[in-house]
Amino acid sequence: MKVGVLALQGAFGLHERVLNRLGVAAVQVRTPQELAEVDRLVIPGGESTAISKLLDANGLADPLADRLADGLPVLGTCAGLILLAAEVVDGYPGQHCFGAVDVAVRRNGYGRQSESFSAPIEVEGWESDFPGVFIRAPVIESASPDVDVLAELDGAPVLCRQGSTVVSSFHPELAEDDRIHRWFVEQDWSTGHRWFTGHE
Amino acid sequence: MAAESMTGRETGTPLVKRGLAEMLKGGVIMDVVTPDQAKVAEDAGAVAVMALERVPADIRRDGGVARMSDPEMITGIQEAVTIPVMAKARIGHFVEAQILEALDVDYIDESEVLTPADEAHHIDKWAFTVPFVCGATNLGEALRRISEGACMIRSKGEAGTGNIVEAVRHLRSIIGDIRKITQADSAELYDWAKHLRAPLPLVREVAETGWLPVPMFCAGGISTPADAGLVMQLGAEAVFVGSGIFKSADPAPRAKAIVEAATNYRDPHILAKVSRGLGEPMPGLEIDGLETRLADRGW
Q1: Which residues, other chains included, contact B183 with Cβ-Cβ below 8 Å and sequence gap of 6+?
Q2: Topology of domain A3-186, per CATH?
Q3: Which residues pair with A139 in a beta bridge?
Q4: For chain B, is the Cβ count within 10 Å smaller at the N or the C terminus?
Q5: Residues A130-168: tens digit of each pLDDT
Q6: Which residues of chain B does A119 touch, with a Cβ-Cβ cutoff of 8 Å?
């Protein structure tokens, strides 16, 4: 299995590091050819406006939309969540949102950098909290009933799944905790969803 | 300063501060002097803007004392864009930094481009919730700034010259010494710490990890897509472009081209494509002819 990390801009190197720690071969994706060769894709945190423009510049917007429509398993964190959402409230004009997960997000909904924070996240079915790091993070303002909300913080969803799309408003790549990545790469998405319990 | 709320939320921790620098990697941070320029930068795909009153080329031309920008101008830029907004404080001027923190800027650049306020001390950056970036010309300087709480390092280069040679010198110096340290044995690390005038624990960390404990970006003299490609291939993790965009003949396409170059820095075909027809770059300056070397500021 080949896991790609969208490497246009942002924390793609940190995602690669986590995947390598898990013994998974991760490849950087910057071109349509590279996208065509991966079995799973991670869309990292970064600036969603910049990543959105670079998707156009590198000719990736249509191929990515096609692969998502075909059910490519994808993990999107922070900016990745914004790109995968169905709606960006008060979004940047022309910003891509691919609608792979039926949520509405507001960019920088948790505030500017002074309000960036870390907080323990209680994940459904897990024995211990996940260390959530929120950097100028987007808020998920609403989620359709078709979306599994796996964790919430102060009433807002922060970790969700729909089909083979997993999104978080925080940055698992910044944590010394590989459980979300491990679940994403180990799950057999073709046979339906099995929630990972967070321990061996 | 790190703080914990009643709900268990912690702000201003080293991880939260470094986190934003991690999110800016692979991107371009652009100097802007008006809200309109900030919009041009955002439209071109900048990951952040640096709000200041004069770009370094003009500071160099005008002379005199260069200070923190007018808060009104910084607020105007914050209202114009949705990407992070950074601003500069003078070296050692912790009250300018307090004011910038009160304005809720996303990153403070304790910058040699402004006239230093203290000839011996940099700001104690641990005392702030807002993260800081600092310039460095060599590894010792980088580690001293990190020991004071900097969460991002940028190689200094020579700002406002449009000349990449100093940026290359500083990057090669920092990365070259990192490579040497990873080959040193444990006894040699004491000597490295003395030689670099840097704390031993940070020298040990560099020896173990082969990199700085925080991201390292490049600044000072980048004016073409090829310049961005050069410093990224040398090891910079993102680029700051100061005068290079808005002192060029046609800023918007050049800004977009440098953004695409920072992403596709290893692909000469894409670099060739984005370098086409950009018009005149900013006029450059020879380093030997400079009256003031900004990179010499900082201790």
Answers
A1: none
A2: Rossmann fold (3.40.50)
A3: A106
A4: N
A5: 999 999 999 999 999 999 999 999 999 999 999 999 999
A6: 7-10
